[in-house]
Write a structure and sequence with these properties.
14% of the residues lie in helices and 45% in strands. The chain is mostly beta strands. The two termini are 31 Å apart. Pfam families: PSP94.
């Protein structure tokens, strides 16, 4: 019973901490002859089963025999002074920066991140 409760506690904490945005694409078969070796993504790019990759729009994806799943790899700031500050997404770093509206060289304190 203690083991069960410990596992339940770990699961509840991990669900709370992980709020990544994800989606799933059902299998769209890539074939080599008669053999299905992977799936096509939304852009029509083929991916082999058990492969993993990062996209240019900051998603981490994987391909399985069921299809392709992708999740964001960045966290969004949700608890900061929105009157004084603004969040700006850096697509190269796949991360948000929170800076003062009047002076983007000054960072703002963020109290909570989601994702």
């Amino acid at each position: 019973m203690k083991t069960f409760l410990a596992c339940l506690l770990v699961l509840s904490v991990s669900v709370t901490v992980s709020n990544a945005s994800c989606y799933f694409l059902p299998l769209n078969p890539v074939k080599r002859g008669d053999e299905i070796i992977g799936s096509y993504d939304m852009k029509g790019e083929p991916h082999e089963f058990n492969s993993r990759w990062k996209t240019e729009d900051c998603l981490e994806c994987s391909c399985s025999k069921f299809g392709i799943s992708c999740c964001t790899i960045y966290a969004r700031p949700v608890n900061f002074d929105e009157e004084k500050c603004v969040s700006i997404f850096n697509n190269t770093a796949c991360a948000y920066e929170v800076v003062e509206k009047a002076d983007h060289s000054k960072t703002c304190e963020v109290h909570e991140w989601v994702g």
